[in-house]
Model the fold of this input.
Amino acid sequence: MIAKIVSMIMSIVIMISSSFGLAFVAPEEEAKEIENVIIMIGDGMGWNHLYSTQNKHNIKLNMLEKTDYHGFSRTRSASALVTDSAAGGTALSTGSRTTNGYIGVYPTDPLEAIATPASITEVAIKRGLSTGVVTSDAITGATPSAFSAHERDRDMSAELFADQVASDIDLIWGSIDAETVTKEACQENGKKYVSTLSEVKALEYGEKSIGQFDCNTLWQGLDNGDQPTLSELTVEAIDILNNDKDGFFLMVEGAHIDKRSHSQDGEGAMTAVLEFDKAVNAALEFAKADGNTLVVISADHETGAVTPNGDGTYTWTSGSHSGANVPVLVYGCDSFIEDGEVIDNVDIPTKAVAFMTNNEVAFPTPYSYLMDEE
Ligand SMILES: [Zn+2]
Done:
């Protein structure tokens, strides 16, 4: 009972503090309107994942070469110095740190008795923008869920999917999870179920969809008939969402940088970086042509404690997440971050929402406080 009361008081404090003054304010000299926001998350992607891939494959990564500003993000969660992907994703989607394992809920209010923190996806929807979530993971994985659901436990796949399928998100695409994601549930909720690249290309603007594709093709960028890669899905997602004159919000996750790093499989992790970088390139090329698109490439945390050996090679020294600061690479906005600046993970959606809404929405904020457009 006392715990419940303390929890309620804490939630009220969070709500009050969110509505007064804690918001990031976009500098006034920022003249350019940001219409579209694309957040690209390399799950588990630290700086040395990027350097090791460049050295090993003797290439320059698009995300390092074609972005304008390179800063750092501190990745801790509310409960630990080393975050998991649930709390990490929640920080990047809501601007609110939470307890490891929680998806889009306050650390003080995991049962959503009082409120849930609004996600950047929900802000976009509320303002009439089109929205999409694309991942090489199952769509109920922690990162995509943080941008499309609110549940107290990342393992509640059925509940996470129920949130997603009932949402107004235009497209949620990821790898096959036949146990959780059924064609019937999609259809019952007015969502088209797509499972090939041709079906994705045949989608009409305004048609909401849930996508289920071959996992290995997605993350390894394989040439596999009508199965899409992560970068192909990124191209198609932008193509669909860009039909919206009001703009769009898109989150793309490369999940296997983390997954292969857990296995201390450096080769696999670098393969995942390469395909994620192709997806990033699709976003950057679109943004360059469009002129009003902000692209932020970052990570929820580092995985593998990847360490240079001094001869150009790198060793995955751990099978777990680390507390290392991760890259924040920005294109399309001169006042998001400065070169070398260190910001908090929660600053990323806070700044993105400020730019997306011309400072009309200040993160973090409870979902129920989202301003009414009328
Ligand atoms: Zn992980």
